[in-house]
Amino acid sequence: MAGIEHSVLQPPGEGGGRPDRNLALELVRVTEAAALAAARLVGMGDKIAADQAAVDAMRLVLDTVDMDGVVVIGEGEKDEAPMLYNGEHIGTGSAPQVDIAVDPLEGTTLTAKGMPNALSVIGLSERGSMFDPGPCVYMMKMAGGPDVADCLDLDRPLAETLRVVAERKACDIRDVMVVVLDRPRHEDGIREIRDAGARVRLISDGDVAAAMLAVSENSPVDLLWGVGGTPEGVISACALKCMGGQLVGRLWPRDDAERAAALEAGYDLDRQLTVDDLVRSDDCFFSATGVTDGDVLQGVRYTGKTGASTESLVMRSRSGTVRRVSARHDRSKLRAITGTRYG
């Protein structure tokens, strides 16, 4: 398969020293649009309307990006999602051919309740390189930064992994913080973490943001642990391939029927998947824009009658460049251009 840089960015016969096209710099417009649309519904108690606003705005801008994209991780199957469904072709149809993973609004409940850490996120990689979760909606995950990337192992007892992480970080185990989704299924693991002497930071939603927090420099969190969404695992892998660090995951069927479907489809339920399994390309792109204020990004802020500001993270794995983009927007001009309500 031709790499992205050769399929779109370098004219035939030209050398490899010429800078190629960074699609992440175009994707930031996509997540900004989704965040601006969803943010007008922060605290309004309607997570469905907030999600739909983000989907509509993301879809509108995605169709202006010069690419032939297929949604691998989307809003669901065609009959269940009006836009950005799995298998949908998006973009202008020109090269490159790419896989797309989207979550127009990660944290719909967070947005509806006006809580922190809601994001709009998108990941992109070469066609055929993203992991298809199939019937498995959930996976067990563990993620950490570059300094502990080789310490992550779902087969080792959790308490032992925490001791290894503390040793690697040259700190007391009491200084290790683990971010965990607040779910009944995690009660035993939370107890094990605390019994080992480490601390737990519970979150209600948003494990893409949590994975990014676990690998960020100067973060209060050392590890992400627990069962979360498999699609979110693929999106997180895009970010982590750019930021560094590691995520290991194992598919986690919810019941016997889902287990049987996964086995019939040929999935290995014992295998530990890494970021390189979830996104096989070495040239992937990621963008995230804050909807509500959080640990990773500031949310949308409003100024005057038509002004707004956003903060985004824009990344590319091939170069390892991570940009933090602060932008000011005139919503009246955006509405005039797109015909879409930006608040």
Describe the structure.
By secondary structure, the protein is of the alpha+beta class. It has eleven helices and 13 strands. The protein has helices at 4-9, 24-39, 47-62, 108-113, 158-168, 187-195, 207-215, 230-243, 256-264, 275-278, 331-338; strands at residues 68-73, 89-90, 97-106, 119-126, 138-144, 177-181, 199-203, 223-229, 246-251, 285-290, 301-303, 307-316, 321-330. The strands form two sheets. Strands 1, 2, 3, 4, 10, 11, 12 and 13 form an eight-stranded mixed β-sheet that branches. A five-stranded mixed β-sheet has the order 7-6-8-5-9, sandwiched between helices. Strand 6, helix 6 (187-195) and strand 7 (199-203) form a beta-alpha-beta unit. Helix 2 (24-39) packs antiparallel against helix 3. It is globular.
